């Protein structure tokens, strides 16, 4: 079983970027954590990052036939992108949204995510560990879908 872990803009700079907010783990570390979490659950991970909204929309559309579920950190596009939300709604796969930081404890413009309304689950404020929680929970959603 294969799942997509999709990362939005500026997450390529993880580790360098505002470490007090986002932590010192790099995106490579996050990828390793996702793979280590997924392997014993029998999940294969397609781990991707893009700074471009349309590339993220394409990745979500491709997941419709290539993957069984999606973990997504939409980053800045969480707060702006109707297109990404619509893509997630269109493919109809289980979606777990993850944010490293607790977006509700930050600036008001981060409090609303367009993606949350089409996500099954939202995890925020757990740092990089949130990705491990997200992958674990997606596996659970997929198990329950099979029953
Ligand atoms: C983020 C939170 C967003 O508000 C921000 O734009 C990001 C990262 C997080 O993981 O905490 O780029 O999604």
UniProtKB/TrEMBL annotation:
* UniProt pathway: Metabolic intermediate biosynthesis; chorismate biosynthesis; chorismate from D-erythrose 4-phosphate and phosphoenolpyruvate: step 3/7
- Alphabetical UniProt keywords: Amino-acid biosynthesis, Aromatic amino acid biosynthesis, Lyase
Q: Which residues bind substrate?
A: 73, 79, 86, 100-101, 110
Q: Which reaction does it catalyse?
A: 3-dehydroquinate = 3-dehydroshikimate + H2O
Q: Does the keyword Transcription apply?
A: no
CDD domains per the UniProt record, alphabetical: DHQase_II
Gene3D superfamilies per the UniProt record, alphabetical: Dehydroquinase, class II
A GO BP entry is: amino acid biosynthetic process
Pfam families from the entry? DHquinase_II (PF01220)
The catalytic site is made up of 22 (proton acceptor), 99 (proton donor)
What EC number(s) has UniProt assigned to this enzyme?
A: 4.2.1.10
Site positions (Transition state stabilizer) are 17
Query: InterPro entries per the record?
Result: DHquinase_II (IPR001874), DHquinase_II_CS (IPR018509), DHquinase_II_sf (IPR036441)
Q: What class of enzyme is it?
A: lyase
* A GO term, aspect molecular function: 3-dehydroquinate dehydratase activity
What this protein is reported to do is described as: Catalyzes a trans-dehydration via an enolate intermediate.
What do we know about how this protein assembles, alone or with others?
Homododecamer.
- Give the UniProt family note: Belongs to the type-II 3-dehydroquinase family.
Q: What is this protein called?
A: 3-dehydroquinate dehydratase
- The organism is Streptomyces vietnamensis
């Amino acid at each position: 079983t294969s799942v997509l872990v999709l990362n939005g803009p500026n997450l390529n700079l993880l580790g360098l970027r505002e470490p007090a907010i986002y932590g010192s783990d790099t995106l490579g570390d996050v990828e390793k954590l996702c793979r280590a979490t997924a392997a014993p659950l029998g999940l294969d991970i397609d781990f991707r990052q893009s700074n471009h909204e349309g590339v993220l929309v394409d990745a979500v559309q491709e997941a419709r036939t290539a993957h069984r579920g999606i973990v997504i950190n939409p980053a800045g596009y969480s707060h702006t992108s109707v297109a990404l939300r619509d893509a997630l709604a269109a493919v109809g796969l289980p979606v777990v949204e993850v944010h490293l930081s607790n977006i509700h404890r930050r600036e008001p413009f981060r409090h609303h995510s367009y993606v949350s309304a089409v996500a099954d689950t939202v995890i925020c404020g757990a740092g990089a560990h949130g990705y491990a929680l997200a992958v674990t929970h997606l596996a659970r959603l997929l198990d329950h879908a099979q029953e």
